[in-house]
Every structure is written in structure tokens, then in C-alpha cells.
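**User:** Once you have settled down, spend some time on the protein underneath, comparing sequence with C-alpha cells, and judge whether sequence predicts the C-alpha cells.
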Amino acid sequence: MKIFPTQSIKELDAYTIENEPIASIDLMERASQALTKSITKRWEAETPITVFAGPGNNGGDALAVSRLLAEKGYQVSVYLFNTKGELSPDCEANKERLVDVKNLDFHEVTSQFVPPVLTVDHVVIDGLFGSGLNKPLSGGFAAVVKYINASSAQIVAIDVPSGLMGEENTFNIKANIVRADVTLSLQLPKLAFLFAENQEFVGEWELLDIGLSEDAIEEMDTDYSLLEAEDMQDLLKPRNKFAHKGDFGRALLIAGSQGMAGASVLAAKACLRSGVGLLTMHVPYCNNMIVQTSVPEAMTELDPSDTCFACPTDTDDYQAVGIGPGLGKAEETEGAVLEQIDSCLSPMVVDADALNVLAGHRNYIGRLPKGSILTPHPKELERLVGKCQDSYERLTKARELARTSGTYIILKDAYSVVITPQGKCYFNTTGNPGMATGGSGDVLTGVVLALLAQGYASEDAACLAMYVHGLAGDIACKKYGAIGMTAGDIVTCLPLAWRMMEE
């Protein structure tokens, strides 16, 4: 599913109006019917509704919804803010349609606003401003937003919470943004919905199909999209009946140190549970017995050091190399990681402590083998690119890093995202808060490593691994609950996740 900037959404609207063809007011009516249907599913007709409508098309949507709700027996109070004496044509048309509508109390605010009483029983519909907003709210509208937020009512935002911009909100004023419980987004999500700091404004979001041109959506280019199950299933490579282990690649995992053998075990098990043909683990001597016992399916290669990764190894026989889980921060490890990068020709999956080494030697990022994948969480990324004020800036800097270094990045978050050197961003739709636990990232590293070793293109490997890792997490969450699940549970559920992908 594509995610378009707000300017592109305007173009989609215009294309639909011209080519369906459909009148603008009729497209608004279609959107309002979808909005009304969603609202009536959530709240009974006994629920008092208060609508705040702005002078633009977002306000027009709100007025049309008011009329449709009133016709269904809801008691609706409407406040239309027309302080400049100018409404959009469609907003004006929907204002005129409110005449003689029963169950509807209409107020047009031209100067002084007397706020209505809002109780815990009320539902507020926010139709003040839509996604076309390009500057923070101020003055009277900011005061209205603060009043809405201070109430105990449940708040439903039409398309986007008023005051929130569709993409960047770095310099926005948080106090002047509606804090919605539910956001009913028209046709497509907004990029801003996927950023952690905006959750307090967006709340739960639901997509409503309003029949925008499918041809236009297909043809219009964008750098942002949401991964969907069908797309991921199409990436899976079928297995030949006469295949043997050599057909599914040899992977090398450089991981573990004294006290952190668990990270290497989790990554190795995830790799083996994701279809790799052969896995070799390069570990210090102190981890040997643990690894041999915990992961008997993997071969081991011992580092000369007793306690850490201290000596780079030959990677010529491997289709992919994973490095980082549980490596630790020993001085000799830092040197070994840099030497390993310089000597390796196969694509690498770089995670955890190996990322921290790169943070201290940023010139080495561009020296990684072609097709390499970095898997940082937000703090690890900031060590690579510098401090970021918010998720939008973090995404922007990650895109620049991917472009300049030629690497692929899986930026881990609630909506993890694969970023390509070409600037494409694929956001994940699987996963849950139960995955916010130590070792979850190690599991992801193992899955990515397995797919790279099997010959998947880096972009496909990153997207598929991220999606299946989240899917396994969702299965684990259903089985164990978000509080009780561990990274090991994600590994345990990987086979079922892969089976679901194959069906």
C-alpha cells in the first residue's frame, strides 16, 4: 500500500474528479458516507455528538457527516468556524444542506465562540483542518483545540487530527494539535501516523476506502509504502523437490562474547529456522560449549580469543555474513570488526555492537560489501548519523546514510522500515509491543542472514525478514501475551510464520 505526501493526495482527488468523472461535492458525500458508517459502528444513536468544522473541505466533510448522523437519529451539535467569512465551495454547499435537518443544532461562529459543554458521554468529531495544513495552528483555532483536548469526551478526527501535518512535525506546536482517540483516514494513511511521537495525537487509525482512482494510485510514484502480506508472499522462492542443503546457502555468524552467548544462540536459531542450508558460528572459546549444546545444527569456528571476537576470519566460502550480536566492546573486538569489513566480499548483516564500532569509524560504512544491511534501533542509528529531534528527522538522516553508503537499513521501531540506497522506504505492518524485549533484534539479524545466504536480493531479504520477524512476534503474542513473551518465543514461532507465508 502506497503512502503519498499530502500534495500527491490532492492530485489523486483531482484526478478522480476529472476521470471518474465525479463532481467534487459528490466525492465529498462518498467520503462522508464512509466516515458516518465507521462512526455508527462504534457509537449508538443515544451518544451525543458535537462537531467542530473548519472553513475548508475538512469542514465540508464534517458538515456532511453531521447531516448523515442526524438523519440516522443521532443528536448532533455543529459549530462551523467561519471567522473570515469565506468557506470552500463544497463546505458552503454542505452548510446549505443542513437547513431543516432534524436532530441537529447548528452554530456558525463568525466572531465570539461560546464553548459547548462536553462530558465523558460525548463524542467530538474534529473537522477543523485536514492534511493540507502547512503551519502550526495559532490564535482562536489553537484555543479551540486546547478546549477540545481538555474535555473528557472521546475524539474522532476526520482524515488527520487538526494541527498535525501529514509528514513533518519537527517544528510543530504539540499543545495546538487535537489529541484524537480515533483517526479515520480517507483512502490512504499519512506518513505522520507511523511515527512514535504522533501516537498521542492520532490514537487508533482506520483507513476508509472512498473510491479514489486505482489507476492514479498505481501510476503515481512515491518513496513510501506499507508492506502487505500478498507482496511478501510473492517474494518467497519455491523449493525444488530435488533441492539439497547446498542450494540454500552457507552463512557465517560472528557473534557472542563472555557473558553474552545468548545473543549468538538466538541469532543462530533464527537463521536455522529461516531456511539457511548451512550455518557456521564464529565464537570465542568460552561460548563453545554453550553454542554446541544449544544449537547442534550449526557448525562452530573458534576465535583465538577465549573471551571475545579478536581475529577476523576467512569469509570466501559464505554467501552472507552476520556480525554483531553479543560481540561486546573489547578493544580487540573493535579492530577485528574493522578488519573483517575490509576483507569480506559477501554481503554483511551488521547489528548491535558491530554498529557501535561503525559509529566510531563512520568511514567504514561505505566500505561494507555491496548489498550489506544495517539493522539499527533508533539510538544505534543516532550514533551513526547524529542526534535527531524526532522520527521524521531520523528517517531523513537514515535515507541519506543509505544513499551515501550504498547500504540497506532496517530501522527498528513500532513501524520498522526498510530504507534502500535509492531512498525507497517500506514500512512494516506486523509486530507488537511484546517484541520490545532483549534479544528480539538478534532474532531479526538471524532471519536476514538466512535470506541473504539463500540468494535473496538485499531489498527483498530485508523486507521479507522484517515482515516475518514481526509475524512470528504476533503469533507469539497471541500464545504468550505481550508481557510474558521473550525473544526465544519469537524464534519458536518462526516456523509457523513461514508456514503461514507459504499457504
